[in-house]
Amino acid sequence: MSEYRLEDLARISGVSARNIRAYRERGLLDSPRRVGRSAYYGERHLAQLTAISQLLAKGFNSAHIAEFFAGLRSGKDLSEASGSTRRTGADQTHRRST
Q1: Cα(32)–Cα(40) distance, rounded to whole angstroms?
Q2: What residue spans define the domains of the chain?
């Protein structure tokens, strides 16, 4: 399993270190593994960043994405976790187009 420091994760994912920190603080990104003051991110974090970027590009906001990931973390299956997020995202799309 590969592990990345924050700067490496930012470079590989194309997401700025500042945004990675913000995603972590907002509950979108799982906490990294810590060894002393050093933080290490893995492939799971890279996959989460990819999903976050894709959802943001589709018009979902960070609150909806955090809700979606919280549902997955609490054991909901994908359709349960995405149900409220999908409706909310569709509502947003409708509101933007009117």
Answers
A1: 5
A2: 1-57, 60-98
CB 93, CB 59: distance < 8 Å: yes
Give 44-80 pLDDT, tens digit per residue. 999 999 999 999 999 999 999 998 888 888 887 767 7
The class level of CATH for 1-57 reads mainly alpha
42-60 burial, b at 16+ Cβ within 10 Å, e below that, comes to beebbebbebbeebeeeeb
Q: What is the mean pLDDT of residues 30-37?
A: 95
Give the global pTM: 0.76
For residues 3 and 45, is the Cβ–Cβ distance under 8 A? no
Block residue for tokens 């973390």: 73
Separation between Cα atoms, residue 81 and residue 67, nearest integer Å = 8
